[in-house]
Write a structure and sequence with these properties.
Layout: E1 8-13, H1 21-34, E2 39-44, H2 46-49, H3 56-72, E3 81-84, H4 90-99, H5 104-108, H6 111-118, H7 127-142, E4 147-149, H8 155-172, E5 180-182, H9 217-225, H10 244-257, H11 261-268, H12 273-301, H13 303-331
Parallel strand pairs: 1-2, 2-3, 4-5
Bound molecules: adenosine-5'-tetraphosphate.
Length: 339
């Protein structure tokens, strides 16, 4: 099958902090698995991170870091298109157009908006935070995307994207491909180590909450040793809320090792929580070793990353501008006519 005939996959991560093992298990690892079967576009969604306050120098550094982590995780720039969202202006342009077609009620319903807005003073919540899903829909729809590999927390935004695409197609004629969500089989929602009832998030600052992809081995192990569990002894996969800490550790172990739940439970039979934490900490350390080594090589190379991002922006622009031209035409925007 030639490249042009492959179905498309699009996904992205915000450069809003240090990437966590949740981001890796829920998103990056799936992307690596899909790069041969699909024509992939992996974006560093810098415009999305502006929905909450960012320090400019930090944003600049994190944007490059996230792009380098894509490559370090195993995404091959020769196979997939890696680019920065703000390098392709079609994303913001389509977002404006789609936001004019979005009922406010659809946006107020989004749980991510409610969660993030509740963490800020009401008067300082930016309009961008409410409009976040419209920008995300634009990212996806511009590439006529078939599949979006994301974690469970993005499910609602994907449903919104499909609703919006359907609405547009209904009003103006078939324009957008309806994207499907691709969830990982294991680890679609990794929970915080400090609070197993809250999703692990890169922007959560609490000490011991998240394990970052660039954490040193001793830090990784220490964070796991301090993970919140319970006062029991049973080491089993379970939905019971009071055992969420143990379940989360087992889920991380399963995602990292690829072993079956049954084999994992057998392995831990008769062992204590201390053993569990130590074993999971070591498995994650091993997982991160090659990734970190590759990351540091890339950070030293410098110029290579710039070249990848420039090439990526060019390729992404080509595809995105084709869709955007169709959209402009369909809704009645007049193009430039030169004699
Ligand atoms: N805890 C998680 N478990 C599994 N997958 C996760 N993802 C995020 N957290 C987990 C997935 O990682 C991708 C990156 O998403 P994002 O950067 O666009 O923002 P997010 O979903 O809001 O992720 P974070 O880490 O919580 O970022 P902040 O704190 O900036 O909001 C997505 O595919 C997501 O599902």
């Amino acid at each position: 099958m030639t490249q042009g005939m492959k179905e498309r996959v699009f996904s992205g991560v915000q450069p809003s902090g240090n990437l966590t093992i949740g981001n890796y298990i829920g998103a990056l690892r799936q992307w690596v698995a899909e790069q041969d079967a699909y024509e992939c576009f992996f974006c560093v969604v810098d415009l999305h991170s502006l929905t909450v306050p960012q320090d400019p120098a930090q944003l600049r550094a994190k944007t490059r870091e996230v792009a380098a982590l894509y490559i370090a995780s195993g995404i091959d720039p020769e196979k997939a298109t890696i680019f920065v969202q703000s390098h392709v202006s079609a994303h913001s342009e389509l977002a404006w157009i789609l936001s004019c077609m979005t009922p406010l009620g659809w946006l107020y319903r989004m749980t991510q908006f409610k969660d993030k807005a509740s963490k800020q003073q009401q008067e300082s919540v930016g309009a961008g935070l409410l409009n976040y899903p419209t920008l995300m829909a634009s990212d996806i729809l511009l590439y006529q995307t078939h599949g979006v590999p994301v974690g469970d927390d993005q499910k609602q935004h994907l449903e919104y994207t499909r609703d919006l695409a359907q609405r547009f197609n209904h009003l103006y004629g078939e324009t957008f491909t309806l994207p499907d969500i691709i969830l990982p089989k294991t680890g679609a929602r990794i929970m915080g180590l400090d609070n197993p009832n809250a999703k692990m998030s890169k922007s959560e600052v609490a000490e011991g909450h998240a394990v970052y992809l660039l954490d040193k081995p001793d830090v990784v192990k220490k964070k796991f040793m301090r993970a919140v569990t319970d006062s029991g002894r049973e080491i089993n996969f379970t939905e019971a809320p009071e055992k969420a800490g143990v379940n989360n550790l087992l889920t991380i172990y399963q995602a990292v090792t690829g072993q079956s739940q049954q084999d994992i439970e057998m392995y831990f039979e008769g062992k204590g929580y201390g053993d569990l934490k130590k074993t999971v900490g070591e498995a994650v350390t091993e997982l991160l070793k090659p990734l970190q080594a590759r990351y540091h090589e890339l950070a030293d190379e410098g110029g290579y990353l710039d070249e990848v991002l420039a090439r990526g922006a060019e390729k992404a622009c080509e595809v995105a501008s084709t869709t955007l031209s169709q959209v402009r035409e369909r809704i009645g925007l007049v193009g430039v006519h030169r004699n």
